[in-house]
Design brief:
Length: about 260
């Protein structure tokens, strides 16, 4: 299995009980009943209706086509500067209701702080890359498209495409590093139109080999410290190759591609 990238410190480590997490989440969420947008770990986003709460449970309603027991949902709260929190819900139980919605029992499984400023340097990759659709609202599963990478870091990647993506879409990206290709899975978090009918798509990396994440971080750090690309490229290639040889990867399990 691929190893996911490191995540920010979870507020859960500060609070001892599920009730504490629910209490903190309720201080941030709108007064119930209310509808919020959530991202699904299965891919995509949808509106979740929060109805009520009791002790460590939150009662909610969600479309039966988008929910299941054991599924993790994430709600992102942002202020005008882009700072905020990510609240994760775990669906513990679902109950049949009339219509298209199911009644859900939710636990708050984590709350993380989010800062708008980029915490990781960005690496300039070769702009030509391919993206395979794993889940998308408007694109076919397993469709492969060409994209132009803008930049990447250990936690995110951005690219330009003439196709339309939506928050929650999930893709597999293969992009070349100076010494070898890197393969990762990413979830779309934002898409905005640019010139000539194209779109700039921003993604968070959800799955990546530790060796590839290390190489992207090293490339980004060296690129920030060096001069022009022509001047720094031989040094980056040499440094990346030496760093890759030093890594102990014998215990790494095979990726799921």
């Amino acid at each position: 299995m691929l190893k996911p990238p490191a995540r920010p410190v979870d507020i859960r480590s500060v609070f001892d009980t599920p009730r504490d997490l629910v209490r903190l989440a309720l201080e941030m969420l709108p007064a119930m009943p209310a509808s919020i947008e959530v991202f699904s770990e299965d891919g995509g986003s949808f509106m979740l209706t929060l109805a009520d709460h009791e002790d460590a449970l939150i009662y909610a309603y969600g479309d039966r086509n988008h929910v299941r027991e054991g599924l993790t949902l994430e709600h992102r709260m942002r202020n005008g500067e882009g700072d905020g929190h990510d609240i994760r819900f775990l669906i513990k139980t679902t109950f049949f209701q009339s219509g298209s919605d199911l009644l859900l029992h939710l636990h708050v499984s984590g709350i993380e702080e989010h800062y708008a400023s980029r915490g990781a340097p960005r690496a300039p990759l070769n702009p030509q890359a391919t993206a395979r659709i794993l889940y998308a609202r408007e694109l076919d599963r397993d469709e492969v498209i060409e994209v132009r990478v803008v930049d990447a870091s250990t936690t995110g990647i951005g690219f330009i495409t003439d196709r339309r993506f939506h928050p929650g879409d999930v893709i597999e990206v293969i992009a070349p590093l100076p010494d070898r290709p890197v393969r990762l899975e990413a979830r779309v978090v934002a898409s905005a139109p640019v010139v000539y009918g194209r779109n700039r798509v921003g993604c968070e990396i959800t799955t990546i080999l530790e060796a590839d994440r290390h190489s992207i971080g090293l490339l980004a750090t060296l690129s920030e410290q060096a001069g022009s690309e022509d001047d720094r490229r031989p040094e980056i290639l040499d440094t990346l190759e030496r760093a890759r040889r030093r890594q102990t990867l014998g215990g790494r399990r095979a990726p799921r591609y």
